[in-house]
């Protein structure tokens, strides 16, 4: 193919954006936002860790913006949907490894650690990962 | 294939995002229902010309204004007198709730176009209604949706643009596309959809923008990582992305822009990674992703 472009490394071609950047970079919109609107949204936390107000707020806004029906994933897994099962099992295995050194897991039986991992995996998929993808989809036009 | 994307959030309510002229001409449209709304636009635009009693206007700063009104879907009928836009909110419960089709539009003073969204909203009162109104305003305010195509509209220009879009799609497919079992890149029309999105940027002669949810945080398992700092694994990942951007720029002058949507805030409380580590890690990544630095 004929080259119509430019040569050399493209500095600045890759940039990071956080949830806070996406939601609150616009100062006018930030000023009009009231945290109380999403205060009642409950986020389950199965793992003890440090959490900040800003991070919790971003998660609640994400949920309010794009949350899927929480029962959908459960019904798909129980129904044997291959893609959902593969995703769920993959996340569960990943979290079993990731939480191996967590104080809440040390000293626990394998089955207890697996149970915790599956809970975290389900939360990550049905609430967070899908929300994030939906948010990115909206972001594609932004 | 079963659909995981079911819900009643603001996102799920939005059917299309569009821009139109002040006279009502449809200039650009995106969304799941874009083809149907496009076909019904001749009837929809008539409703912009009337003054519906439920039209509400809100003045914003710098002279911008937002208006919201209901679209009377009973007026949207084809030549066979069938409703062109049947709507329902997908739900696990049997039956459908009564819904309305509502337009939210924003106009900036001096601009010759209006940006709008069409949302399917239940008739009954909703929870988080204040947030929902803010979220719709957020979408209207933050969307960059240029309607016009830069340059000529000749068939030669169109063919050239399509050629470039195909080439960029090939570059993506050959280098950084993640291939999953039973993926639908070909069988599900994924490639075609991707190429059309790339074409949208090429027709407008702007950098092709990619969004990648990634780089949440380092694993807290010391058996998997060398420490809390970005290491060579992150360097290699960023190099791959830069390399892809270079390859696009070599065939398309405006090049590519890759936005990494760092999703650490989404997951850090699930992995026992203190947020401080996430912020620290991201700061290092942000400052060190200059290609001239060497990682250990």
Describe the 3D structure:
The complex is a heterodimer of chains A (142) and B (296). Chain A is mainly alpha-helical. Chain A is built from six helices and one strand; from the N terminus they run βαααααα. The mean pLDDT of chain A is 78. With 296 residues, chain B is α+β, with helices and mostly antiparallel strands. Chain B has helices at residues 10-13, 34-49, 129-142, 155-175, 190-203, 232-251, 264-267, 275-288; strands spanning 14-21, 26-30, 56-59, 65-71, 99-107, 113-122, 208-214, 256-262. The two termini of chain B are 45 Å apart. The relative contact order of chain B is 0.09. Chains A and B meet through strand 1, helix 1, helix 2, helix 3 and helix 4 of A and helix 1, helix 3, helix 4, strand 7 and helix 6 of B. Strand 1 (14-18) of chain A pairs parallel with strand 8 of chain B.
Give a concise summary:
The complex is a heterodimer of chains A (142) and B (296). In chain A, 58% of the residues lie in helices and 4% in strands.
List its traits.
heterodimer; A: 142 residues; mainly alpha; 4% strand; globular; B: 296 residues; alpha+beta; six-stranded antiparallel sheet; two-stranded parallel sheet; 8 helices; 8 strands; 36% helix; 19% strand
